[in-house]
Amino acid sequence: MRDTITIAMCGKGGVGKTTTAALMVKTLAERGDKKILAIDADPAIGLSYALGINVDKTVDDVRNNLIQKVKEKKIGDRDDTLRMLDYELFDVLVEQGKFSLLAIGRPEGEGCYCEVNTLLKDIIESLSSNFDVIIIDGEAGIEQINRRVMKIVDHLVLVSDTSSKGLNVAKVIKKVAHDNQVVDYKSTGLLLNRIRDEEEVNTIMKQQDIDLFGWIPEDELIREYDFSGKSYLDFPETSPIGKVVQDILDSFIINGGAAMSG
Ligand SMILES: Nc1ncnc2c1ncn2[C@@H]1O[C@H](COP(=O)(O)OP(=O)(O)OP(=O)(O)O)[C@@H](O)[C@H]1O
Ligand SMILES: [Mg+2]
């Protein structure tokens, strides 16, 4: 039985996955009572940047290196390979004191190196078990939901703005995730972003059969942080958005994923 709680942000492009993932990492890091792993699963790198971290090396680099070794037949037995991967992944892991970060790069390389992917999946899972909470900033769209990283998710956060396209992508992701039953989700719900007022939330939720985890208003400070490229680790405590993020995290960590009522 795994004790680690894994929370993943999924949804259409540009709806706020990275922003909300970064705010979650910041909130948990500040609390300081959990070992946190942030996983940047956006091939274009999102969460790392939002947390002010420069990425030198990704999991994809480790994979390519291993594939090269396989091609050149420079590979030992499985135990040797696992030891090597363990060492190399440790190199990819950025330790920041209050949290660690792993950037995935491309979720899967070209060609079928299924064995390499399976080895990596195993080793990421074993690394993950050293942490209490894992926050994943996913790639936009539905592709990733079946893949390596997403198989360890407990709480699937479907981030959406108010657009029907965003809400539809959320619905499709939920369906794909549940239909495939590749994951043992404890909860799936919407995190509505860039909301004007509560009325808007009520109108949207009347037309959804997905639970609501919470909602975040359109926020001037987020715009400013984005504009100036500031790290969300410095986002002020006093922002009401902190409370929204805190409540959602509490629902996962304390209540096991209860959605908002009403
Ligand atoms: N609540 C908000 N208020 C104002 N601006 C916001 C809010 N949430 C997100 N944004 C802005 O919307 C843009 C997209 O946000 P973000 O990068 O978090 O989305 P994303 O889902 O990670 O996008 P991608 O799919 O490209 O990775 C950014 O410019 C961000 O600053
Ligand atoms: Mg992003």
The computed structural class is alpha/beta
Question: Ions, cofactors, ligands: which are bound?
Answer: adenosine-5'-triphosphate, magnesium ion
By CATH, the architecture is named: 3-Layer(aba) Sandwich
Distance between the terminal alpha carbons, to the nearest Å?
Answer: 33 Å
Count every helix, treating DSSP H or I runs of 4 or more residues as helices.
Answer: 9
Main sheet characteristics: 8 strands, mixed
Order of helices and strands: EHEHHHEEHEEHEHEHH
Oligomer: single chain
Radius of gyration: 18 Å
Whole-number mean pLDDT: 87
Count of the domains: 1
The amount of beta strand, in percent, is 15-25%
Explain briefly what this protein structure is:
With 262 residues, the protein is an alpha/beta fold. It has 9 helices and 8 strands. Helices cover 42% and strands 17% of the residues.
What are the key terms here?
alpha/beta, 8-stranded mixed sheet, binds adenosine-5'-triphosphate, 262 residues, binds magnesium ion, 8 strands, Rossmann fold
Write the layout of secondary structure elements.
Elements: E1 5-10, H1 17-31, E2 36-40, H2 47-50, H3 59-71, H4 78-92, E3 94-95, E4 100-103, H5 114-128, E5 133-137, E6 155-160, H6 164-180, E7 187-195, H7 198-206, E8 211-217, H8 220-228, H9 240-253
Helix pairs in contact: 1-9, 4-5
This protein binds adenosine-5'-triphosphate and magnesium ion.
